[in-house]
Fold this protein.
Amino acid sequence: MGGVEHKSGKRRKALPWAVLGLWIVLLAVVAPFATKLGDVQVNRAVDYLPTSADSTQVAKIQDAMPGGEATSIVVVYHRDGALTEADKATAAAQITRIDGQFELTGTPRAVTSEDGSTVMYPVSTTTPGQDDEKRDAFVADVREVTRGGDGLDVRVGGPDAISSDARGLYGSVGGPVLYTTVAVVAILLILIYRSPFLWLVPLAVAGLADFMSMGAAYGLNQLFDTTISSQSSSVMTILVFGAGTDYALLIVARYREELRRAAQPYDAMWATLRGCGPAVLASSGTVAVGLLCLLFADLGSSRGMGPLGALGVLCALAAMMTLLPAVLVLLGRRVFWPSVPVYGSRPKARRSLFSAMGSSAGRRPLTVLASGAVLLGALALGAFSLPESLKQEDSYTETPESIVATQTLAGAFPDRGTEPLVIAAATDRAAEVMRTVEATAGVESAERGRSSGGWTEISVITDSVPQTPGETATIEALRSELDGQDAYVGGLSAEQLDLKETNDRDRTIVVPIVLAAVLLILVALLRSLVAPLILLTAVVAVWGASLGIAGLVFEPLFGFEGTDPALALLSFVFLVALGVDYGIFLMHRMREECLNGQEPGTAALTALRTTGGVIASAGLVLAGTFAVLTAMPVVTLVELGFVIAVGVLLDTFLVRTYLVTSASVALGRKVWWPGPLSRTPAAAPAEQERKLSPTP
């Protein structure tokens, strides 16, 4: 026996070190790939669109032409009141210098506003080709040449200047997202644990999981050409830290409890993983499956966010289920100082806030349920106040130079388009297409451009300001008139229109798939139909209320002039997946108590009392991590972060605490219909079910 115990003791000491060594090897392997993730990010709208979109076809045709897709910018000269002769001479001299310094597709021609306050020079070149760095360098060089002063305002705008500024802003997001997320999680963990050391462990493990996910994401891109944007990589980081910290909170809380029952940390951790591990696996698997439903989207940015988000959750799960336990075991009980859980001791009895909240829900369940439903329904009405689709110039909280140029042009040329549409027409039908285009209502002028590979470019100026209903009507009219003439309508405004239409189509396809997939998983996990329907109804209500709150504050409080077309779909997927995640912890514990002989009403209150504190802490961390996005300079990130953070808080402190609990109390055994628990009381505790409990 002594030999067996000796071998067992050696194994207990060796296993945590082996896990730690394995992680060191894995991190060393992925390190070269993790640093390359930024190299494969794309942030152009046309990179996200499906291949069937007109604007995508135009971009592909232009890419195949000599020099590739043209780089188009607009140099804008403006003086309040009117430009002076000296201003015009300065502008002409600078444009002449640009024409001599760069290989342009044609000599830029001045277009002067009727009030004489503004003159613009459209500039186009094919020299940079498809190299974004060269495009950015071209825009920067033109800005270096064009200088104002003494009241003359000079700005470089146009489609590729906007894209260049967007790349700069999106490229600057990654670092701040990571640093701010780490700071937020650190502060929350310090407040939750009230320990000078313990908070460092889950934070460090989450950081390593994030590094692992970056390397895995790069590999995913190389193997399957997955679309990776700054938005999706930022959300992946948020999910790694948010979901990973949630799992850590549950594991650490259960581990603290087991340390009072087990003499050795190894035994306590083994009991912890047996106890809450299955529930953590089930919840993370549900989140991953929910996110993977985005693969059914046509929009590349949404489709790419699905596997990246799932990858982040799975990397967080792997780290928290292997590396975190190994580190905690190696550090021993002292990591909990000053509140070290001593073997054989009992925790101090404390009055549970969630016990009081659950009791209030249990006394009048129908009243609480009806009141909550009315409140959520009233909040959801605010969604009708959401602004229209976000325009390009309204996409940033910090206005870049190209957007200032766009705004100047919109004021100076109210009856003229300043960003040309691009039509790609079959060369043998180009003359016919030109006649059709010129005869289309809303078209001010059309000019024939390059021809190559059987295709010809046609640049179109409309009589409407970019991304307005008037220009949208012109784009739709052009596409209708050119249908069947081997011609495609593209350009920046056409891309934005295609983005909106693709998002609308994706929402009708992906939402039902997410609901069906999550419902099937919940039915399998909870062995009931009613309980999963309660959870799904609750998270859908949370989604609606969150969008409603957004509708009430986006324009009046934040000053947002539009809403990201992808907001409804992405927020739905994240809130359903993450909301159900917490519901699994609550319902699993409730089911365990029912199997132990408690009535469903009592079991619901017990589950809330025992899991409420830890899950509330997890909800605060997850909401805090998504709230990080609201500090970013990109409106789409701010809107997504706000809606998800609000939704997580609603789910944590209202829906799960009051509404799900009160519904369970009101329904009684019917909550487990049609399973056996809906008909007869459990005769005895079920050890297998107890293992699914996430009891902290």
Remarks:
- The two ends are 35 Å apart (CA to CA).
- The first strand starts at residue 71 and ends at 78.
- The chain has 22 helices and eight strands.
- The beta strands are 71-78, 111-112, 118-125, 153-157, 421-426, 443-452, 455-462, 487-490.
